[in-house]
Amino acid sequence: MTSLRTLTGTILSVINNAILIVDANDRITFANHKAAAMFQTAGTAELTGKSIFSLFMTDDQDILAPNLLHLARTAPEYEDEVMLRRFDDTRFIAQISTSKFHSEGQTNAILSIHNISGIKGIEKTLKRTERVASVGRMLDDINHQIRNPISVIGGLANRLARQPGSDNRYCQAILDESKRLEGLLDSLGAFSKLPLPMVCPVTLTTVVNEITATITPQVEKFALSLTIHNTEKMPKESVSIDLGLIIKALVAIVENACDASSPDSEIEITIGPSGKSLPYQITVTDHGCGISPEDQPRVFAPFYTRKTRRHGMGLTLAQKIVSEQGGAISIESRPGKGTTVTIFLIADRRRAIRIRRLSNENNSRGLSPEIPAL
């Protein structure tokens, strides 16, 4: 009998759900270690003897909690999702499964509690993703519905400009604005149709070579010079990226930098270690007019621009590309001094446990002991 109780206790301690047993007086008579961790207590003793109602939100203690206990004692099984609170007054969404058993003439309720806050967060993310997808489809429709009239307007303005006696200033203004609207539609289309990244390991040498080949002509068009800095150890390292999309993000960033720079000035790109949780970074620095502190929080917002002929989607596109690859992007700027945009990249998307052997003297497989534990 003792061994059976020990086995039962061991099973209850390794179950990944919180297990609570509640007596006929609605007091907790048993809690496993997972329950103590879930409700932020120092140990199971803090839960034992407590009213089960104390774990429910105040609004639910008079009706929902008694109803749930009633169903737990009368129905063969019951399952529901409720909001519970921890001992530190934080809250979480729980899935509660109930059962019952009889002991010493009374009916006890067994509650199995699983924290599903993370799952609910994923559901919200999926809903947001669905909304984004619907917005993308709507943008496609808007693009089509607006582009055709713009083309007609531009074409008619072009014909009108060739008519004798036409005022070309007005015709040219119509043509210029038509082209600007078409450019805006192109930017929106590029943003909404951005492909999902196809991530793979890429050496930093390859990144440098691709940046040099793609960015240099872009900078030279603005009559500027490009300087690329990198560290000596860098060629041996690799990052986990979709190189084509990262280059697209850099093109957008560099175009902004060129716009902000005066002729004959320099654009600097630096590739190397970051010293942060994301181990590598690419920085783009210009020495142009800079951005005021009040405007800096808005630079990644769609349509933000200080140029009348720009669409303000470049940094928005860059941020989306980088974030979808598990990276991050930041900006630092001083008015009159210039701006630095930094892209942070990850070295490996896999978890550490998949790429590094653990050191454990009890490891029956004899994994390498010289590798430090995580």
Q: What's the CATH topology label of the largest domain?
A: Heat Shock Protein 90
Q: Would you list the SSEs in sequence order as H and E?
A: HEEHHEEEHHEHEEHEEHEEH
Q: What is the approximate shape?
A: elongated
CATH class of the largest domain: Alpha Beta
Write the SSE topology.
Blueprint: H1 2-14, E1 18-22, E2 28-31, H2 33-38, H3 64-74, E3 78-85, E4 91-103, E5 106-115, H4 117-161, H5 168-192, E6 200-203, H6 204-221, E7 225-230, E8 238-241, H7 243-260, E9 266-273, E10 280-286, H8 314-324, E11 328-334, E12 338-345, H9 352-355
Parallel strand pairs: 7-9
Antiparallel strand pairs: 1-2, 1-5, 3-4, 4-5, 6-8, 9-10, 10-12, 11-12
What does this structure look like?
The protein has 374 residues and is α+β, with helices and mostly antiparallel strands. It has three domains: 2-115, PAS domain (Beta-Lactamase, 2-Layer Sandwich); 118-193, Signal transduction histidine kinase, dimerisation/phosphotransfer (DHp) domain (Helix Hairpins); 198-374, Heat Shock Protein 90 (2-Layer Sandwich). 40% of the residues lie in helices and 22% in strands. The chain is built from nine helices and twelve strands. The strands form three sheets. A five-stranded antiparallel β-sheet has the order 2-1-5-4-3. A five-stranded mixed β-sheet has the order 7-9-10-12-11. A hairpin with a 6-residue loop joins strand 9 (266-273) and strand 10. The model is unreliable at 361-374 (pLDDT under 50).
Q: Can you give me a brief rundown of this structure?
A:
This protein is an alpha+beta fold and 374 residues long.
